[in-house]
Amino acid sequence: MPTDSLARLDAGRFALGSWHIFSRLSLEEGAALVRRALDLGITLFDVGDYWDHELSNEERFREIVRYLGLGRDDYRVGIKVFTNSLESRDALVKQSLLRLGIAHADYVVCSRPAVGEALEDAVAAMAGLVSSGLTREIAASLWAPEMLGEAMDLMVVRNLPRPRFLQLQYNVCRRSVVESEPYETLFERTGILLQAADTLEGGILAGHLHRDRYNPGDRDRGHWFPDRNIPRDSGGIRPAIRAMVPGLEAGAARLGVTPAQLAMAFCLLHPALDTLLFGATRPEHIAENLGALDLARERPDDVREAVAALAVAGAAPPPIFDVSAGMH
């Protein structure tokens, strides 16, 4: 990463969110978390809702905003629209905004077209979210690089809003997708940026080795997550990632930082990075994680060297899924 890019690393590179962060907290706990983030310069909150919790993430965030007395200009918010064969993107975004109690999002992350949906229709629907005022920007997730490149070319020809970033799982172990030739070409050719998600592998890279993925139906079978659910293990490499944690801890110890700081500093060094999405439930963890900024700015070569041997082969992009069909 060029020196000038390193100099521009600041708290604005972070987005607080990651699965059901806010819905797992009491109102007071959530308010303390958001207040600390804002005080430290983090203004972007990803509140995309998911199926595996009883309280809406978006509704809890709305309560937090009201509790803190925040104005709409005090924070930025991002939501997600997953492939849904029964409802339009427009309708789904309006439902999210209603739960949030706001008129527009700052970005909407849109998954790739549903099975049987024409690319032209998907592109028009995504652009319509901006032209109708429902969001300031669009972003993408669950897109293959070739399809997204084709979509962005179409957007250029039609003078339509293009997605600002592509959200992908990316961390010190799960890097083979983002760093593959097709995605690197996409970043370079189209100028789309990267939002790094799952940067701590659901907390596993921070030492929570017991965490894993649970799916619809597991609750009915009496099998449910002990403290939090985490994203799917695309490629089936999570056991190998757990095996890399001691190496991450050793590298962090050599640099005098925490494993989370080292892992996040690595993500900050990606040349196409727009934002790094991370989860936290305690205010002190936010301040601690921001230490990754100084580490990335001041010791980039040390960071790369410390994690060089931690990459795990075999990561894969998540498969497409249709929420309306019960496929998560």
UniProtKB/TrEMBL annotation:
SUPFAM superfamilies: NAD(P)-linked oxidoreductase. GO terms for molecular function: oxidoreductase activity. The keyword Iron does not apply. Pfam families: Aldo_ket_red (PF00248). InterPro entries: K_chnl_volt-dep_bsu_KCNAB-rel (IPR005399), NAD(P)_OxRdtase_dom_sf (IPR036812), NADP_OxRdtase_dom (IPR023210). Residues 15-297 form the NADP-dependent oxidoreductase domain. Keywords: NADP, Oxidoreductase. Belongs to the shaker potassium channel beta subunit family. This is Predicted oxidoreductase.
